[in-house]
Amino acid sequence: MNEKTPVEELVFNVLAELERLNYSYNSICGYRAFYKRVVAFATEKKEKYYSEELGSEFLKVKYDCTINYYVEAMPKFLRGPIRRIRVLGDYQLHGVIIRRIFKKPGYVKPSQFEKELVAYEKECAENEYSKRGLRTRMQRLYFFIHYLDARGIQNVNEITGETISDYVKTIFAHHEKSMASILTTLRVFLRFLFLNQNTQEDLSLKVPKQKKYYYPPIPSVWKQEDVVSMLENIDRGNPTGKRDYAILLLVARLGIRAGDIKSLKLTDLDWENKTIVLKQNKTKRMVSYPILNDIGWALIDYLKEARPVSDSPFVFLRMNAPYEAFGRDANLHNIITKHTRKAGITVSKEKRHGLHSLRHTLASSLLEQGTPLPVISEVLGHINSRSTAVYLQTDIKSLRKCALDPEEVFKNDSR
């Protein structure tokens, strides 16, 4: 749908589509008022048809918006206007309103694709994809399914190479890593349809491939004094502090992922052999971690003095009733953020100081000590050393300024 439509007609069609998609009355009123200004602006400029240039100029004149919103982060106060302008452009190009997000309560699968989606989801579960990985995979796929539904496609056999090409145009503004994930998800799903005889043609061959090499970003690492400051400023005189201290030690000392910490059970703690044995959520591999002295005392302090009385099998619980394990979507980011702020640590916008950054710091420290990459991969739970090799990109001279010596930094307290 590349033919240009007069601005007034385009706006009328978009508002009608918003109503069909059951947008709220208030949302539609907001869109209508906004588009009246767009039409008036086009009339003033003597532009009969809508164009991306017209939309960008409108944002620049009316909102002082000069960013390229397809490749740059959008300021919060500009997200509404930019979204409405993009809706006009999307509808003119594709004849559909592209969904940018799906609400968490659940996606209602279009009836014409429900059978295939359920079968694909079942196969992914049988292949033991992690719950989080499967949820992310299906989330990406739903955008494509919504696009098909909006285009009026009623059967998977109606999907063509042109349809796929048109859809790919809608995601070109994503970060290249996000695009790679979306295209991979689409390719795997279309291959599944062909192998299960849902489609007569292997449409996965129609999905374009990115001519990009694997260039992961250089990980963020902590300065030694910042990690020490954060840990020392945790108030271990209260139950929440005891819990948070134990969690942060497990990440910083052993590199355990947040998902594995959430799913850690009391039965995973082998006190006799001083080990933690668990099945990693991401890799599905059984791994064993040593219960180092400082970690052991932190766990004992939390379990004996702070953990709420509960029948839950999980080690770490919420500190407010009902006393349950952390939620499925909890990433524990608030824990490290809270204690970073309390310690007065300033985090630059270029750095990521979430829980995962403590894993990066541990890896960098081990690398500085001459630990081989395969050993670091084993510690971090990487399936192969390629994920770990990214730490080689960090300048060793600069690394010495921020690397941590685990044995020196995290000494056992005076117990």
TrEMBL record:
Keywords associated with the record: DNA recombination, DNA-binding
Keyword Repeat in annotation: no
DNA-binding recorded as keyword: yes
Pfam families reported for this sequence: Phage_integrase
CDD domains cross-referenced by the UniProt entry: INT_RitA_C_like
Annotated Core-binding (CB) domain residues: 111-194
GO MF annotation: an example: DNA binding
Record-annotated Tyr recombinase domain positions: 217-404
Protein name from the UniProt record: Tyrosine-type recombinase/integrase
